[in-house]
Each structure stands twice: as C-alpha cells, then as structure tokens.
Amino acid sequence: MSSPHSAIVGMGRATYLRLLVFFLAPAAIVYTVFSIYPLLATIFNSLYLYHSETKSYDYVGLGNFTTLLTDTTWSVPFWNAFRNNLVFFAIHMSVQNPIGLALAAMLSLPRLRLRATYRTLIFMPTMLSVVIIGFVWQLILSPLWGIAKLFLQTFGLGFLFAPWLGQEGSALITISLISVWQFVGIPMILIYTALLAIPEELIDAATVDGLNQFQAFVWVKLPLILPTIGLVSILTFVNNFNAFDLIYAMKGALAGPNFSADIMGTLFYRTFFGNQLQLGNASMGSTIATMMFIIILIGVMTYLFVIQRRMQRYSF
Amino acid sequence: MRRNISAIAVHGILGLYTLLALFPILLVIFNSFKTKNAIFGAPLTLPTPSTFSLVGYNRVFGDSAVGSYYVNSIAVTAGTIFFTLLFGAMAAWALTEYRFRWNTLLALFFSIGIMVPIRLGSVAIIQLVVSLNLINTRTALILVYTAQNLPLSIFILSEFIAQIPKDLREAARCDGLSEYNIFFHIVLPLIRPAMATVAVFTMIPVWNDLWFPLLLAPTGGKQTITLGIQQFLGQYITDWNAVLAALSTAIIPVLLLYVVFSRQLIRGLTSGAVK
After folding, report:
1. Would you tell me which residues 177-206 of chain A have a C-beta closer than 8 angstroms to some C-beta of chain B?
2. What is the extent of the structural domain holding A83?
3. Which neighbouring-strand residues pair with A125?
4. Taking the complete model, does pTM exceed 0.90, yes or no?
C-alpha cells in the first residue's frame, strides 16, 4: 500500500500501514488475481497466436482480430453471432422492458390491494436457474407433450402450432421470449422502486390540474424515471451480450439449428473449448472474449457519457 | 364507479400476468408427482390418488450423485458468501474510515468489477486454475465467485458503514479499543442488515450459475446441483418422470428460500444496490 498521510492520532506509521494491509489485502488479492488479472491476460492473449505443433506463442499484434473479422471461416460465424445477439437485445428492449414498465406502473398505483403478493409472484421466475427454465419451456413447447398445442387448440388456434424451437426461423425469437419471460422481474422491480420515490404531492398537483392517472403517468412520472430506464437499458445490454446459459441449456454449444440461435457467449465457448466440428483454440477464444469486452465497454461508455449526462437535467 | 372498473381491469391484468409467471413452474411440479400415463394423458390436472406416483423422484435420488451435488452447491455458496462478506466488509471499512494516498484510486479499481463481467476473463481463469492445480475443486469456484461478488459487496457495505455515527467510533477509540476490535465488535454487528442483503444478493446467482461449474468443475463429483441437473437431464432425456422430478428437485429449494428471503432480496434490489 502507499504511505499514509493522515494517520490515526498516536499511531505509528508502520502500525497504520499494517492496519491498512490487514483490512485491504484479502479483498485486493482475491479480486486482482481472479478478476482483473484474467481480464488483462485474456486481452493480452488475443495478441498472440498459439501453435499447437510447437507449443509456442507468436506475437501477431492485431492479427487475430483481422482473422476474426475478414477470414470467412471466422467472420461468418462471428457476424452471425453478433447479429443474433443484436436481435436478442432488441427483443429484450422492445418486449421485456415495456412489459416491466407497464407492470411497475400498475403495481405503483395508489390503494392497490395485494401489491406485495403480485410483486413477489411475478418476480419468482427470475430467481430460478436459467438451466431449469430452459428445460421447463422445452418440455412445454415440445410436440411430444403437446401442452402448447393443447393451449392453442382451446382457443381454436391449433393450426398455429409449430415446433418453434426446432426451426431455423423461429428458434432465436422463441429463446429470446423465454428469457424475457424469466427476467421481466428485474426492470419491473427497478422501475417500481423509482416510481415509489416520486413525491405524492407531484401527482396530486397534476391530478388537480385535470390530468387522469394515465396522463399523469406519461407526462409527470415517465420523465422523472428516465434515469432508471437508462440504467435498466444498460443492465439489459451488458447481460445480453454476456448471455450464454439459456442457449447452451436449450440448444447445446452448437446453438442450432444451423447456428440460428448462436450468440457471442456460445460462440466464445465453442471457439475456446472446441466441439464436434472444430478443435479448441485459446487464442481465438481470447480474441472473441476481447471483442465482447469492447462491445460491452462501448455500451457502458455510451451510457455513462451520453445517456446519463443528458438525463441529469431531469433528475430532482 | 369508473374507479371500480379500472381497479378490476388492473387486477385482471396483474392476475393474468401472475398466472403466466407461475403456470410453467407449477405445471412441472404437479406433473412430477404423476404416473407417466397421467403426465401425457391429463397434463393440466392436479395429481389425484390414482395418478400419484413418486417413480421420478426414486430415480433422481437413486442416482447417488445428486445428494453430493447438493452438498457441493451448499459448500460453494456458503463459502462464497462467507468470504465475500468478510473480505468485502473489511475493505469497505478501510476505504471509508481510513485516509491514505490511493484511497480513491483503489475504490475505483474495485468498481471496475461491478460493470465488467468476470466471465470475459474465462480463458485466463482456466489457465490459472489449472496451474494452481485447483481444477475440479470447490475451492476454485469459491475463489472465482468471491472475486466476482466483492466489488458490489464493497460498494453496498461502504454506504452502510458511512452511515455509522462518527461519535461511536471516536468513543470506542477513547476507551482504548484497538482498530481491529472496533471493526469486529462494533462495526460488524451494526451492519448486519446490510450484510444480509449482500448475502441474499450473492446467493442466488452463485447457486444458479452454469458457466463456471461447466468450466472449472465439470467432472469428478464436484459438480454443483445446477450443472448436475443439466447433465442428468441430458442422460435421462426420454424418461419424463425422471426429468420432471429432477427439475422439481432443483426448483423447490430455491422457491422455499425465495419465500423466506424475498423481502431482503427486493429491499437489496431497491436500495440502489445495482447502480
């Protein structure tokens, strides 16, 4: 640690230093060794090419990135995964977050009974493991069990049923919607809390001015919770571009059919570990992880410097 | 009158959504207690005395490994919570209480981990764990999860420690208590509610994680229950009784914990913990 410039009265420098080391070293060491070092080492790894025959590393600069983005063996899967990940994110932004907002708005209505019960129950799927949720939905949508079909038939819509998870055109959308179903609780709770923090008088004043509940929500509450919506968006972005579990649990590492559900997380896993089709490749795995890091960093920076700064004008 | 109609509409929508959230979970749990014929013949009914069956559960618990997967999950989760709280509280205390050069820098350094997912460092984490000879051990998982959860823990606990009145600490110092005693005997008991929040917050994602168990402890009997169930499901994919029972076995403990801790968890989520 550094030399202290403001020690506790009557304490020697060496004793003070020992105190700081005692309290800070365990956290600093575990965090540095198992979190920061691996991140840096991964970025560092992406600048080297591993030769399995000679077991040696060659410095190639940005060569791996050029390969990833231009060599069709790599660039086709990469852009496919990137595009799918954007679709995955777009579905969360356009379905999960609006539903979360609507539920939060209803939950925060004054004099609503059973508020805590609704909140607890709707949040429940968020608690369960993605692996479990993936399997549960796989069973429900399975033509073998026929629950989904039975359901549609009750409404006379049986002809709409298809093995959605197995078809190239619908697998990704179906998986995204399952993820939306599971995680809608997070935007709901965050927005709900922000809504509760709005002073009652503000809404009363708006109602006195002749606005109904819905208008008061759109014109008074919504602008005030924009910072929370910004936070929800960046959390969604980071989680989506880091996702892996659900697709792996439902579709395996190949994210089939024909890679139609492949996202960055599964591509990274497959590249690093290898699979039936290719050998594991630590250098390219690191390169993909570094690309994910850059994508997430761009998102976080955009949030910090553009969205959050612009929104501060609206905060209290 | 109009108010009544809109209240009914709101309850209708919230009620329907609650049903949508619970239906898949309940469907699996109910059917796990039925015979195979009833699972396919009448999936939407509750188990009755004539359709009741525990054959799936016999298969799951007949697989002797399932018990040890639970032990692994409990050990990994408890170990992670212990070290995350202890190291997190110690660092949070030093960062808020003591002034030294690099204080702000160190706090910033810790905050990187809140936004950057540790998963991206997986390639190097595996190499590190292999070189430490910790592959297929619970220790590896505990160390990685502790590193993953420390930043948020330090962030939340710092806020609580900063709220402890200064007089309390000064009085203790005047009484001649050492800094170590002040922390362990005065500060730690005072921040217990915050520590409960952090514990619940750490527990759920660690228990549910698939990525690190898959990478660091995929075989050798050290699988966590989440990974163990995933592997079990792969093996028994055609045995519906076993699949449904395995899923319920994984769901029910989490649901019970959730019912007990939901207040703490939602308080944690809402106390600005995710900023």
Report:
1. 181, 186, 189-190, 192-193
2. 72-314
3. none
4. no
